[in-house]
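Go through this pair.

…
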Amino acid sequence: MSLGLVIFAHGSSIPSANQAVEEVARATAEAGGLPVETAFLDPIRPTLDDAVTKLVDGGATRVLVIPYFLTLGLHLQRDLPVIVERISRRHADVEIRVTPPLDGHAALVRILLDRTAEALKDWPQ
């Protein structure tokens, strides 16, 4: 059973914001040795449907959607389940699961402390 990952983000009208998510997806693919696609909320492309279809066309039989969202907000509670259900009907032979958002992961504390240390380097003592 082949696994593919989708990094699912809100998306932005600012191209550099979407490119940053794409860079995270590329780094995740390299580090994890798995196929990884990027997806955004419709109408920004690629959509989750586009990403899942690409992974399935590449041989994935299991798809793990990783929300690139900090908290479990409205889009993850309301929109994502509906989108995943629709895609699951189209790809009935593919198991699609969704991970929790980033909130609550132990690495977030380390990231916040790292950002604090970086910012304080330039401040006089």
